[in-house]
Amino acid sequence: MRDLYLEFLGAGQLIAKIAGMENANFKSVKYETPKVGVDYVSDASAENVRFNFHLRTESSESDFSKWTNLSLHLYFYNNHDLCQFHKHKEFKHPEEANIRQWASETAEDYVFRKSSNDLELLFGDRDIRVRGLAGITNATLIEFIINLKGYLDWGADRLLVYRFHHGTGRSEGFSYAFLVESRQLIYDYSFWCVFPTFVGMSGGTGYSGYKQVEALLKETKEKTEVEIIDIVVNEDTFLEFLRKRNVTFTGSENQLEDLVKLFEYFGEGVEKPVSEGPSKTKKYSLSEIPGKFEKRVFIGGNYDNISVLRKIEDIVSDLGYQPILALEFEVPPDKIHDQDMVLLHSCKHSVFEVTVPNGHLMELERAKEYGVKTLVVFQVRDESRNPPPSVSAMILSLGLPKHGYLSFEELRKAISDFLQK
């Protein structure tokens, strides 16, 4: 019989070896439910890098080596918890699922991208905001000083800086980028401040600007933890990358006109105070799940029934708990189901609205395995409170607390009683 877990562990060790993670520290867990599937999760960490490796199957068999769908996910993070690399693969046929081969090829891809200073990998999954104007020293230098000092005064205890080298000798120019982290906030507002090709070695204002930037970084090193990474990249390649990431900037000679256009582009209210929230709806990051474990409540259900799920979200929040809805996390829509398990495992309680069927069985099975206190709710038509035909008999047979409600007032009371037991 094929032992998927041993294959999974071996593939994880292979990933660490290829990535050069000597003496990596592994933490692995497995969850197996007959006729549902398995979830294997492995976290490995070494100096300056860590990865999360995840295997998940769907099956109607008791034999865990027999499945109808197998998915693999690999995430690489740097020491600032920045997700720099992610790949996934789905297999429909067991004979095609060579877990070790996929792990090897994916890890090699990561190593190649890292060794070649791939810009997508360097900036990872965070927003990029260009400050200043490409090719203009004074205006950009002022923005560099203001942004960096403002970030440090805000209370930053560490700083990650990229110093990009364009060209060589007296024609060498520099771009800088630093990561603005928001680890102390509920929402993840982290982003990159990028200052494109504004200083250099050719003399004049470009060289004096370079000296001022380096002096400021040296001063910063004396006060806090600073990591500066030097990256050699062609200037045109760098600027084209920024354009492809939908960053708007300009580098023409009319400085005043360009500054006006820049601020018109960002528009009034884009740079709002943190307390007012972002300019567009931000989603949570899986690396920073909000709230404390004891107060988190996972909300499960069919997203076609989103108005009711939002109502449950409001009820949970009103009761002083932290609602966790997978839809509100930075996950591609087709991968929400995969990440549900990670979020569910991070919660003490869960509430599942099962009136509208959507394959809740796996999540509910996992909730029992994970020890998550779970309430199942569904809409009913009368005081008999019989579940509607849409509610699966399998769900009702799980032995979980359940409640049929006639109104949102009843739903609120049921959830309140459940959470405050």
Please provide a written account of the structure.
The protein has 421 residues and is α/β, with parallel strands linked by helices. It folds into three domains: 4-114; 123-276, hypothetical protein tt1805 (3-Layer(aba) Sandwich); 293-419, Rossmann fold (3-Layer(aba) Sandwich). The chain is 34% helix and 27% strand. It has twelve helices and 15 strands. It has a five-stranded antiparallel beta sheet with strand order 1-2-3-4-5, with helices on both faces. The longest helix is centred in the middle third of the chain and has 18 residues, at 204-221. The protein starts with a helix and ends with a helix.
- Overall structural class, as computed from helix and strand content, comes to alpha/beta
Assigned CATH architecture of the largest domain: 3-Layer(aba) Sandwich
The oligomeric state is: single chain
In what order do the strands lie side by side in the largest sheet? 1-2-3-4-5
- CATH superfamily caption of the largest domain: TTHA1528-like
Q: State the helicity in percent bands.
A: 25-40%
Largest sheet: 5 strands, antiparallel
Gross morphology is globular
Determine the number of helices (DSSP H or I, runs of at least 4 residues).
Answer: 12
Q: In percent, how much strand structure appears in the residues?
A: 25-35%
Computed CA radius of gyration, to the nearest angstrom:
25 Å
For the record, the count of structural domains works out to 3
The CATH topology annotation of the largest domain reads as hypothetical protein tt1805
